[in-house]
Design brief:
three-stranded antiparallel sheet; 2 domains; 204 residues; Aspartate Aminotransferase, domain 1; two-stranded parallel sheet; alpha+beta; 36% helix
Length: 204
């Protein structure tokens, strides 16, 4: 097999292009950038999850319809990912948003979680006749690569840890027992349930 000639990438040029494109986005997202200061008073870091804290900045979604969403600056987006609720129940469906607590002006993220729990319940009913059980495990704040940045932030820890009665972050080991239970015959008559493993976070 012939070896193709390699091309050296100018990383400085790549960085410059990224900066140029990010600078173009800032004027279009002025309301979202400003709103984050308000959101930080209600949600740790001003966003619903650590990946939304990635640069250049978070945007806040005002409404959605089908696979289209609009941010609070009025920018319209076509959501090719379809991972924020549209795939199951439609963007920002009021019943789903109503079921999710928190996430200030961030209903698209909440809707995806609510949509998944609704999907689990629907599948449980549809598949029970075939002796197939469908349950879900809902984790709280768990130490992972995705949450490392948020959990390493002192302000975030000060805002969230006191709200967890267990007074610690969760780990993967906290899910072994419930996973074994759901996979065993011990849960043969349990289906359509959402089992929360969060150290008491949602109860406090």
């Amino acid at each position: 097999m012939a070896v193709r000639e390699t091309t050296e990438i100018d990383l400085d040029r790549v960085d410059a292009l990224i900066q140029e494109e990010e600078a173009k986005l800032e004027p279009r997202h002025a309301a979202s950038i400003a709103y984050r200061r308000t959101a930080e008073r209600h949600v740790a870091g001003g966003v619903a999850s650590s990946w939304q804290d990635s640069p250049p900045h978070a945007i806040y979604i005002e409404r959605g319809k089908g696979n289209h969403i609009w941010d609070i600056d009025g920018n319209e987006y076509l959501d090719f990912h379809l991972g924020y609720g549209a795939m199951v129940v439609g963007h920002a469906h009021p019943k789903i948003v109503e079921a999710i607590e928190g996430a200030a002006r961030n209903s698209h993220y909440g809707a995806s979680k609510g949509g998944l729990t609704a999907y689990v319940r629907a599948l449980a009913v549809e598949l029970a006749r075939y002796q197939i059980r469908v349950n879900s495990i809902l984790p709280g704040w768990i130490e992972t690569e995705m949450t490392a940045r948020a959990m390493g932030d002192e302000r975030f820890r000060a805002a969230v840890l006191p709200r967890i009665p267990a007074r610690r972050w969760g780990t993967w080991d906290d899910f072994g027992g419930i996973a074994v239970y759901l996979m065993s015959d011990a849960s043969a008559y349990q289906t359509g349930e959402q089992i929360v493993i969060d150290g008491g976070y949602t109860k406090f």
